[in-house]
């Protein structure tokens, strides 16, 4: 079965290489997600064909918004970029055609009209990304969870809508998976931010274990630093377990939206193996078997 799975993944990736070079708005979205959100790219490949175009557009928007913070030198420039996307969302729902490939792809009938994508989830992602433009650490783990809910969970709600799934149990699972995703994204970014003398980990957890920003900036491997990482990672694990507690109540077709748990589980496993040393080189290596793991999880129809 593994051999067939690898072949299937290779065929799908090959087809996407062709699609991505088309020069169209859809090709732009696919290429952007493949280059900047490879795990999200793999997840989207495993969605039903009727959902893929919309999901690639949604993930492309998420990438565009996530890049604003690191691509501008002044906060005002970031605010202008966010206002552009806020206006673009308004135009999409007003029937206009925004002048950007991602907005153009989102404005197509199959996206907004066919799937009836909820506008407030899109605006909530934009608003939360804007609020996060300030280079400040999260005051508490709860603040980090709120950010994750408003960004990653909102994205999952929209992807569920592309699958025509709208029920409280699926949304509940999506909420917890999104929070886990946001927390793990924060952890994965620690080495990068530390190299830029920035620390965004929750202040309350850092204070609890007596760690300072300087501890992370100098890549300390002391126990108190590992304890901070353990506590934050444990909360991500708790959210994944909560999401799985609804498994029997979640519609089967919703499982495809939750394949990102493959990557989240993989990272947490590597982090435990590294004894919660967030700076361990193994955490920076790309998992070449990830496409296979995604396919196997999809084949098992679980999350």
> What top-tier CATH class of the domain at 135-285 fits best?
Mainly Alpha
Order of helices and strands: HHHHHHHHHHHHHHHH
Give the structural class: mainly alpha
CATH topology of the domain at 135-285: Farnesyl Diphosphate Synthase
Mean pLDDT: 91
* Number of distinct beta strands: 0
**Secondary structure: helix percent:** over 70%
Beta-strand portion reads under 5%
Distance between the termini: 19 Å
Question: How large is the radius of gyration?
Answer: 19 Å
* Rough outline: globular
Oligomer classification: single chain
Compact overview of the structure:
Helix content is 70%, strand content 0%.
Report on the architecture of this protein.
The structure is a single chain. This protein is mostly helical and 303 residues long. It has a domain at 135-285: Orthogonal Bundle (Farnesyl Diphosphate Synthase), CATH 1.10.600. It contains 16 helices and no strands. The protein has helices at 2-20, 25-36, 38-45, 49-71, 75-93, 101-106, 109-114, 119-131, 141-162, 168-188, 190-195, 203-208, 213-217, 223-245, 261-273, 290-300. α4 (49-71) packs antiparallel against α9 (141-162), α9 (141-162) packs across α10 and α10 (168-188) runs antiparallel to α14 (223-245). It is globular and about 55 Å long. Mean pLDDT is 91; it is low at 1-7. Its main location: mitochondrion. This is NADH dehydrogenase (ubiquinone) complex I, assembly factor 6. Involved in the assembly of mitochondrial NADH:ubiquinone oxidoreductase complex (complex I) at early stages. May play a role in the biogenesis of complex I subunit MT-ND1. It comes from Pelobates cultripes. One of its GO terms (cellular component) is mitochondrial inner membrane.
